[in-house]
Amino acid sequence: MRGYGMKAVEQPAWLEKPKPKAGPFDAIIKPKIVAPCSSDTHVMHGGSSPRENLILGHEAVGEVAEVGEKVTKFKKGDFVVVPCTTPDWNEPGVQCSVSNAHDAGLMRSFKFLTQKDGVFAEFFHVNNADANLALLPEGVSPEAALMTVDMMSTGFHGVELANVEFGDSVAVIGIGPVGLMAVAGAALKGAGCLIAVGTRKASIEVAKAYGATDIISYKDGDIVKQITDITGGGVKRTIIAGGNAETFAQAVQMTLPMGTISSVNFFDIKDTLSMPAAVWGLGMSNKDIRCGFCPGGRVRIEHLLQLIKHGRIDPTKIITHKFYGFDKIEEAFHLMDSKTPDLIKPIVYID
Prior knowledge:
- It is a single chain.
- With 351 residues, the chain is α/β, with parallel strands linked by helices.
- It folds into two domains: 2-146 and 314-349, Quinone Oxidoreductase, Chain A, domain 1 (Alpha-Beta Complex); 155-291, 3-Layer(aba) Sandwich (Rossmann fold).
- The protein has eleven helices and 16 strands.
- The protein has helices at residues 38-44, 92-96, 129-132, 142-146, 148-162, 177-188, 201-209, 223-231, 245-254, 298-309, 329-338; strands at residues 2-8, 11-16, 27-34, 54-55, 60-67, 79-82, 124-126, 134-135, 170-173, 194-197, 214-216, 235-240, 255-263, 288-291, 319-324, 345-349.
- The longest helix has 15 residues, at 148-162.
- The two termini are 16 Å apart.
């Protein structure tokens, strides 16, 4: 079969691979809509452990092409939503840890990109299908469902980690697609003052639509000072959804004592995160610093799909570019890599 990925670091390419096979508990999916993500481009550029001869992609909605003999909840022809994180539910780490994102080790539930080929292929493999696939419900478009598998799940996880409560002041640093979902999630959780940090015009408009009360930009000066000026001292919850190594210290600094800093940002393997001790109140400020990779599995995606079905959120607002045809994956991938000013999120209709 054919798939789009990388021969090696900095070498994106079309690849020929054998069609994957389903084990007794697994499924083979034919993608119908996929979306490139910055994590895909990050891997291609070598921002994680170097990969070779790998099909990329981890965001897909598709049709079940084959199921193993032990699969009971899905059958050939079902239209399914595929979480980007597909845990091995038999691993002890899933059964005892706070998040199922780490089944046999750090981020081991993120099978695509790290342990096997991804979804930019004619067919792709999903382990533990009964626990890792969700049926597309009536009343939810495939495009909206596609946004749940990573962007919405990850952005909302930032909100979960931050423990946002009614009336809290919240800052979201970075308003790419994940940050915008964090803005939307914080608004749903009842944030009061909700500050979005970003510069792209398209993202700013969507952030306002999702409930941001204030927009600030690093181009207008120190973001810590801007946020403390707006709030009169700082915010209770800060969510890092973008930025660089310096962003970490800024997030801690703008957060009030007894507050929480949450990060779902994928830092580069070469980054070193540090901060002056005074920013953390010499260790006495009771500021919690939390980070995490989004949980996976069927139940989480079903919950997110219910929010869409019942009109609580429209995640398609972050879709800015649409491509049609399997071969267009390459063009959409390079668009995601170049991040043109009008881009938030591209999607590709396979057929």
